[in-house]
C-alpha cells in the first residue's frame, strides 16, 4: 500500500468541499452511535477504533470548547491525549521555539492540535511536525474546525448552503472563526452579508480573496439597502459550482437581491476580540429578541462560536432559533471525524479517505532566508515572533491577478497580502519594471526572483533600475 500522505488542516482551504462533506458523513456516523439521552446536548458514545492513538493538545492561548472537545473526541475514539495548555509550565517559558516543540511532540503523539496567538503559527508548526497538525485557532488568521462545526450545525438543520443568506456580525477583522467561515460559505455558494462593529470589517486580504479566488461579488449598495441598513456589504456567488481558481470578474446575474432582502437564513454573532486590539470597541452590535423581531429573521438560525461576552442576549437561549450550544456540542463528533480521517484510525472499509488536497502545482512559492528581502507586513504574523525568527523564511505565494495585470504576494504563514513590493532578477541584477518581466523571471525559476520592500532596499543590495524601453 502506498504511504499515506501527511495532511495538515491549517486553513479551511486545506480541505476541498468534498473532503468537508466526508468529515460530515463520518461525524454523522459518530452521532448515530449516541444513546438517547434526556439531556439534549450530550453527544457521543465511544467508538473504540482509536485505541493506542494519542492526541497532543498544544494550547498557547485560553480555550474551553476547542481543547476540551478535541480531547473528548480522542477519548471517545478510544484514544488518549496529552496536553500542554499553559505555556508558563512548558519549555516555551524557557524560550523554546514552536518549531522545536512540535518536532519533539510529533514523537509523543499521532496528531497535534495547536492554538497560538500568532497568525500563521499553524503553518509554521505544519512545516516542522511529522504528524498531522490541526489548527485550533492561530491569532486572527483562521479556525477551520470551528467552521466545520458551524457548517455541520446548518446541515443538521437541513439548511443547504447554496444561496443561503448569512449575516456575519461583530469583530470581523479579528475573529479567526469568521475568516474560515466566510471562505467556506463562498465556496459552497452562500450569500454573505457583513455587519461589522465600527471599524471592524473583514481584513482587506479576506475581502480580496472572497472576490478574486472564490468568485464572490459585492452587490452595489442600492441592491440590498433597506430600512434596517446595518449591513455593510453583501457578497453573492455566481450560480455555478465553485472552483478553486483565480477567475476574476465572473459575470452573473445579480437580481438575487430581492430574495436577500426578504429573508436571512443564518445570523452569526461574534465577540469583540479584546486580546487582539489595544482600543475598546465602540458601537458593538448587540443581538437580542428585539433585534431579531423583523419578519426576515423569523426562521433565522442564530450561531455564535462562543464565548459570548454581552453581544448575544442570554434571553435568546430558549428561542428555537438559537443553535449556539448545539453548535458547540457538535465539536465532539466533528473532531472525532477529523482526527479519524487525518490519522490511520480505522473507520471501516467503506469509509472515504482524504484524497490529495488542492492541486498546488501551478502556484509559485517564493522563499528566502529571514535576513534577505521583504518580510510579511502583518505585525502579528508568526515570522515576527522573536522565538521563531530563525525557523521561518520570507515565504510568499506569488499570485497573478489577471484583472489588475499585477502580481500579489500572499504570506505563506498568515496569508495576509502584499500588493506593493519591488521584484528583482538575481541573474540580470535588475529591478523588474512590471508584470511581464516578473512573469518572465518566475518562468526562469523562482530562484531568479528576489523581493524587496522598496527601491531603496533593492538598490542597497546592488540592484539597478531597468532601463525603460
Ligand atoms: C473562538 C476562538 O477561539 O476563536 N472560540 C472557539 O474556539 N469557539 C471564538 C472566540 O474566542 O471569540
Topology readout:
Blueprint: H1 17-32, E1 54-59, H2 65-76, E2 80-84, H3 98-105, E3 111-116, H4 121-128, E4 133-138, H5 144-156, E5 165-170, H6 176-187, E6 191-196, H7 204-212, E7 217-218, E8 233-236, H8 257-262, E9 266-269, E10 301-303, H9 324-329, H10 331-342, E11 364-368, E12 394-401, E13 406-411, E14 417-418, E15 422-425, E16 430-431, H11 435-444, E17 449-452, H12 455-460, E18 464-465
Parallel strand pairs: 1-2, 1-3, 3-4, 5-6, 5-9, 9-10, 16-18
Antiparallel strand pairs: 6-8, 7-8, 11-12, 12-13, 13-14, 15-16, 15-17
The structure holds N-carbamoyl-L-aspartate.
Features:
469 residues; alpha/beta; 6-stranded mixed beta sheet; 4-stranded parallel beta sheet; 12 helices; binds N-carbamoyl-L-aspartate
Summarize the structure.
This protein has helices at 17-32, 65-76, 98-105, 121-128, 144-156, 176-187, 204-212, 257-262, 324-329, 331-342, 435-444, 455-460; strands spanning 54-59, 80-84, 111-116, 133-138, 165-170, 191-196, 217-218, 233-236, 266-269, 301-303, 364-368, 394-401, 406-411, 417-418, 422-425, 430-431, 449-452, 464-465. With 469 residues, the protein is of the alpha/beta class.
DSSP helical segment count: 12
- Stretches where pLDDT falls below 50 for ≥5 residues? 37-42, 241-252
Series of H and E elements: HEHEHEHEHEHEHEEHEEHHEEEEEEHEHE
Backbone shape: globular
DSSP strand (E) fraction? 15-25%
* Alpha-beta classification: alpha/beta
Radius of gyration: 23 Å
**Each distinct ligand:** N-carbamoyl-L-aspartate
Strand order of the largest sheet: 7-8-6-5-9-10
Care to count the β-strands? Answer: 18
Mean pLDDT reading: 87
Amino acid at each position: 500500500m502506498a504511504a499515506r500522505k501527511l495532511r495538515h488542516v491549517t486553513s479551511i482551504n486545506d480541505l476541498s468541499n468534498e473532503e468537508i462533506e466526508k468529515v460530515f458523513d463520518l461525524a454523522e456516523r459518530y452521532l448515530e452511535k449516541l444513546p438517547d439521552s434526556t439531556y439534549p446536548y450530550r453527544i457521543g458514545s465511544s467508538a473504540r477504533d482509536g485505541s493506542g492513538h494519542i492526541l497532543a493538545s498544544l494550547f498557547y492561548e485560553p480555550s474551553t470548547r476547542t481543547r476540551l472537545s478535541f480531547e473528548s473526541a480522542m477519548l471517545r475514539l478510544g484514544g488518549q491525549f496529552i496536553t500542554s495548555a499553559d505555556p508558563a509550565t512548558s519549555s516555551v517559558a524557557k524560550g523554546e521555539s514552536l518549531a522545536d516543540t512540535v518536532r519533539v511532540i510529533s514523537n509523543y503523539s499521532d496528531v497535534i492540535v495547536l492554538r497560538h496567538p500568532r497568525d500563521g503559527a499553524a503553518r509554521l508548526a505544519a512545516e516542522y511536525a511529522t504528524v498531522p497538525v490541526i489548527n485550533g485557532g492561530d491569532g486572527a488568521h483562521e479556525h477551520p474546525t470551528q467552521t466545520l462545526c458551524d457548517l455541520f450545525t446548518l446541515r443538521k438543520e437541513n439548511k443547504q448552503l447554496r444561496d443561503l443568506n448569512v449575516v456575519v456580525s461583530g469583530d470581523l477583522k479579528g475573529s479567526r472563526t469568521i475568516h474560515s467561515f466566510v471562505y467556506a460559505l463562498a465556496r459552497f455558494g452562500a450569500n454573505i452579508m457583513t455587519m461589522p462593529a465600527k471599524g471592524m470589517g473583514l481584513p482587506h486580504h479576506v475581502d480580496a480573496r472572497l472576490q478574486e479566488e472564490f468568485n464572490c461579488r459585492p452587490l452595489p449598495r442600492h441592491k440590498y439597502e433597506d430600512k434596517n441598513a446595518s449591513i455593510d456589504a453583501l457578497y453573492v456567488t455566481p450560480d455555478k459550482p465553485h472552483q478553486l481558481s483565480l477567475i476574476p470578474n465572473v459575470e452573473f446575474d445579480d437580481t438575487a437581491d430581492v430574495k436577500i432582502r426578504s429573508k436571512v437564513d443564518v445570523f452569526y454573532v461574534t465577540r469583540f476580540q479584546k486580546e487582539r486590539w489595544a482600543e475598546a470597541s465602540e458601537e458593538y452590535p448587540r443581538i437580542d429578541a428585539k433585534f431579531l423581531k423583523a419578519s426576515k429573521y423569523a426562521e433565522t438560525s442564530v450561531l455564535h462560536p462562543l464565548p459570548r461576552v454581552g453581544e448575544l442576549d442570554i434571553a435568546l437561549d430558549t428561542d428555537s432559533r438559537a443553535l449556539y450550544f448545539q453548535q458547540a456540542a457538535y465539536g465532539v463528533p466533528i473532531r472525532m471525524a477529523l482526527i479519524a480521517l487525518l490519522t490511520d484510525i480505522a473507520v471501516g472499509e467503506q469509509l472515504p479517505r482524504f484524497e490529495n488536497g488542492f492541486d498546488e502545482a501551478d502556484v509559485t512559492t517564493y522563499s528566502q532566508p529571514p535576513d534577505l528581502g521583504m518580510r510579511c507586513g502583518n505585525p502579528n504574523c508568526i515570522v515576527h515572533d522573536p522565538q521563531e525568527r530563525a525557523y521561518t523564511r520570507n515565504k510568499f505565494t506569488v499570485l497573478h491577478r489577471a484583472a489588475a495585470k499585477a502580481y500579489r504576494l500572499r504570506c505563506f504563514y498568515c496569508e495576509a497580502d502584499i500588493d506593493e513590493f519591488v521584484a528583482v532578477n538575481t541573474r540580470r541584477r535588475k529591478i523588474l519594471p512590471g508584470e511581464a518581466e516578473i512573469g518572465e523571471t518566475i518562468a526562469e525559476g523562482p530562484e531568479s526572483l528576489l523581493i524587496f520592500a522598496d527601491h531603496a532596499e533593492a538598490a542597497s543590495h546592488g540592484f539597478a533600475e531597468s532601463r525603460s524601453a
